[in-house]
Amino acid sequence: MCGRFALFTPVSELTNKVGAVMPEREIHPRYNVAPGTWVASIRQASEDSAPTLEEMWWGFRPSWAKGKGTQPINARVETVATNNYFKSAFAKHRCLVLADGWYEWIKNSSPKQPHYLCRRDREPLYFAAVYAERDDGGLGCAILTEQARGSAADVHDRMPLILDDDSLEHWLAPDLTHKETIHSMVRHIDAGLVEHWSVSTAVNKPSEGQGDELINPL
Question: Which EC class heads this enzyme's classification (predicted)?
């Protein structure tokens, strides 16, 4: 799964790759982004518009659920295109969630031992995600996950679906709606690019801080 991540690279650097329009408001670095908060995302609302950087609520509950549906933070890549809760968003409302790395916890560790996972070259990450309009008119998203690959599998059996640079525009393109076409045009990054290390258990509680010390190796 993906239940916590960090974003500290200036978002202006991340938006350049897809030509996204920046908001007027500054987005500050965060080292412990938790579900149920606003996250920096890129979406393309229509074929005639440029991609835009927007903040979305990390929790997916479409307005048609009328406040009664679940509010998942993740969607499985294996079923997102066919699951009734997500399939419309997969076809029409795909987005990118921006990150530098994410956290996972070693199973059966006590206290729960977090690891920080990121690219070996420290390049930022683009998580594939889907979004929908919420009851309050805002946008809520869920990050796609896949079977863990490479060294990420040492920590957890799932990992976020991280797209390579050539897939970003295809993933955002509103005119791509057919699931087989989307799958054929989108690729994840090479598993060998990911590394990880153990970090402080202070990550376990988002209230304990947002400083860069959270990603320092133990």
Answer: hydrolase
